[in-house]
Amino acid sequence: MQRIIEIESDSFEEPWKEDDFLYFRNRTNSMIDIADYHKGVVGYICYELHEDGISLVNIAINRNLRRRSIGSQMIQFLIRFLKSKKLKYIDLKIRETNLKAQLFFSKCGFRGVRVLRNYFEDTGEDAFLMEYLRFSSNRISFGQDVPW
Ligand SMILES: CC(C)(COP(=O)(O)OP(=O)(O)OC[C@H]1O[C@@H](n2cnc3c(N)ncnc32)[C@H](O)[C@@H]1OP(=O)(O)O)[C@@H](O)C(=O)NCCC(=O)NCCS
Predict the structure, then answer these.
(1) Which residue's alpha carbon is at the smallest distance from atom 15 of ligand 1?
(2) Pocket of ligand 1, candidates 9, 45, 67, 69: which has the most ligand atoms within 8 Å of its Cβ, to mutate?
(3) Is the CB–ligand 1 distance for residue 104 below 6 Å?
(4) What percent of the chain has pLDDT over 70?
């Protein structure tokens, strides 16, 4: 838990405290998964299971190990879990100012679906509701091979 708290404090201006993680972990249908590297925690993901889908509520990677696909691998793990449980969606609410994470989730196949005005009580910021749908008709793939 100590390593998680350190990564959290280093990642957010309003970090979860140890009690927040313990409260979250002890709730029914709430999960915390970690990414291990050489027996050390380098990242974690917190999510809630619902009847039809998953709400991702927190993800952070050790600052020194970002941009090495660890976050993407955690999301891929969650998408595989979604498929194995035959659930329909993963959603999340991201701060309007957290552009880096918005880009990250877009790269992982999420799309913005709604703006929730003044969602975050601490700063009054809006939230962007983003979602990943298991069966999406408008997920576009880009490749470098031009077919002519
Ligand atoms: C968002 C976060 C989890 C991404 O983890 P990561 O392991 O660094 O992400 P990845 O290396 O898998 O990145 C995958 C892609 O996302 C995009 N991306 C990730 N971080 C980015 C950044 N800082 N700026 C722009 N694009 C970014 C890129 O397209 C990247 O691919 P590339 O490196 O080939 O260009 C990490 O930056 C983090 O812990 N941020 C602080 C906590 C946070 O804001 N969490 C989200 C809100 S709960």
Answers:
(1) 104
(2) 67
(3) yes
(4) 92
147 Cα–ligand 1 center, Å? 31
Annotate the chain with three-state secondary structure: CHHHHHHHHHHCCCCCCHHHHHHHHHCCCEEEEEEEECCEEEEEEEEEECCCEEEEEEEEECHHHCCCCHHHHHHHHHHHHHHHCCCCEEEEEEECCCHHHHHHHHHCCCEEEEEECCCCCCCCCCEEEEEEECCCCCCCCCCCCCCC
Superfamily name with CATH number, domain 2-133: Gcn5-related N-acetyltransferase (GNAT) (3.40.630.30)
- Atom 23 of ligand 1, residue of closest alpha carbon: 100
> 12-43, pLDDT tens digit by residue?
999 999 999 999 999 999 999 999 988 899 99
The minimum-distance atom of ligand 1 relative to the CA of 101 is: 1
